[in-house]
Amino acid sequence: MSDLQLLLVDLFSRTAATLFGLFLFIVTTISLLRTAVVPRALTSPVSDAVARSITGLHHLIARRRKTYVKQDSVLAWNGPLIIIGQLLSWLLLYFAAYGLWIYGIGGVDLGDSFRESGSSLFTLGFAHSTESGPTILAFMAAATGPIVIALLIGFLPTVYNAYINREADISLLAVSGGQPSWGPELLARLTLNNQLGDIPTHMNAWTKWFGNLRLTHTTYPVLVQIRSASPFRHWVIASITALDAASLQLSLTKTLPRAECTQVVIHGTQTLETLYAALTVRKKFFTKLPFVGRHLGAPIPESDALIKMPGYQPGSVAVEQAASTDSARVFSAEAVHQISVGEKNGIRLSKEEFTTAVNMLKKSGYPVEVDLDTAWTQFSMSRVHYEYVAYQLAYILNVLPAPWSGERKSKFDTIWPTSSVDIYEENITQSDPPTGTF
What we know:
Helix content is 69%, strand content 0%. By secondary structure, it is mostly helical.
């Protein structure tokens, strides 16, 4: 090969290295800003690829475990390792970007350029160049490394503060709703503890919890993968518990407060739909949304039937429809389609399971004021709006097999909370005076 050809090859390789290094620098910077700086639910190919890879690996390892508790012990590492993996990926990409830049404009060979890139990026200082171009890039790399690490140091407290806020209410629910929590058990324990009058307070707290969950888990998607400290608690199960408890009160009673329960159903449904759309169907460009009727999900005939049910008021139904339409504006067309199809298929919970739960509530003293058929119809109309997305999230995240929470990838027996009603009946029986003649 002639000297001219060698010169042209060298010029081409250095030009290509400079351009590719610039591309890597831009892509990595955008990923860093979208993930750790901009407070908005933004997609990032780099961060998403790292999260999917680490999550896939953890689920692959977890499926080899034979009990749910052992699976959860594996999946508990998933969220934290996603954060570490993203940090390492940013540093590695910056290392490659600066190495290619130095090679492209510095006149040094490829090995020396990456050596200088690493020395500068990690502020080790064992390699340097006297040329002006590489020196400027070395200063840039020396500033980039500490900035990336500092952003992560600031990012971690924000994420874990949101995690603690989420888990505080879930931890309280373990006492009031069982562990794992279950909607009927929550109402039964409140009844047995003479706290029916406190239900509006509980429901208002869960409305606020759903609002925080929607904000933090779309802004920082890694929170979706960070599991509770106990294998028998999970934010998806807590969501289903609160929604089921609210839906049961709306369908079974006429005199107990219902406005707060309606708010829980509306906010909880919108939260789970938003997280489902963000987690499963993340598209950059949105197309026309295929609404069914005037709003996402329920067609008009179902809305008319719902208005006639004793647990709902026309105004509440209108608010729910308007909120659903507003929330769906940020969904992709595919996400809206999947949610709509899931709702049209109806609920998977059986009437027998519902009847068993109602009988348990009657034993606790909970006031059942509506006949069973009417209550089942109303409960089904309420649950259909959140059951599909809740079951999908539980399946994707492989959460604990709690009651009324759908199927899992691994077939484990349902884990039930300790029944407060059974203990109550046993205590009553034991306290009865003995019969017979002495």
